[in-house]
Design a protein that fits this description.
The protein is an alpha+beta fold. About 15% of the residues lie in helices and about 35% in strands.
Length: about 350
Amino acid sequence: MTDLKKTPLNAAHRALGAKMVDFGGWDMPVQYPQGIIAEHLAVRTRVGLFDVSHMGEIRVKGPQALAFLDWLTPNAVTRLASGQIHYTAFLYENGTFVDDLLLHKLSDDEFLLVVNASNVDKDFAWVTGHTAGWDVTVTNESEATASIALQGPLSLAALQPLVDIDLAQIKYYWFAFGHFQGLPVMLARTGYTGEDGYEIYCPAAKAEGVWDAVMAKMALYGHEIDDTTNALEADLGWIIKLQKGDFLGREALAKVREQGLARKLVGFRMLEKRDIARDHMDVLIDGRKAGYVTSGSPSTTCGVNLGCCYVPLSHAEPGSRIEIEIRGRACPAEVVPTPFYKRAK
């Protein structure tokens, strides 16, 4: 039996309890413990995170790159502006499909083709096999490239704090280059869910850091945020612009800011390797319930078991000791700064 290929995020999926399956020769997660219905509803109503690093990336460069791809594919490459994407295909002479793909125009001389995972080798051979007489170079960048998709109506709000460009300015089926916490990335407003969203292209070696940073930042409705939590205690003060004038909820939030918070959302790490916190577990201070866990999981990048929870303001500072009740045991934990992962400068 041939060994399954693995994306750079394979260990992260397993640490999160994903059910792994053979997907076109790749060891991929088919669902997480929350279940397929919960995942579907999250993407439709909030936001979901996908590993699409199994997809292939083929770069075509050279003085004749535009003319070559306009001849090789059926869609009108000449109509694309730099920074624009379109859906197209490789076709056999009889009009049937070699594969379908997304074509990204960087310039008249450079294009990035994103092809299906199971067809990477075939597609690369197809493109290179037709370059005779054309002044182009073709590079298979699939193994060196990771892609992470953030999809759903809240995808822009979740991703924006982590990047240095205005995501709202990227139109549907366009892309731009920027930095994800200092890491150079390509951000495309594309995806296969039918919802708004973005695909983050980054070096494969940096994929776990990007994944963990997005996981740490996403405030998920029903976990970090719900109709019992206000935006200030959820550590989302950066979206609250009291100075802009009136808006729904302004009066209540202004009062909270004036009076001060009673509790706050914080990050924590478990102090014992065997202990893994999960959402809805109780947070204990001096043996008494003082809050609850909103999310928790092992972190392959940080090498410890992490989570987020609500605690009284008196224990919100990094270094504060708390306990998480896990199956009747009071397990030691420590409040730590968020985001959990920061790329080294």
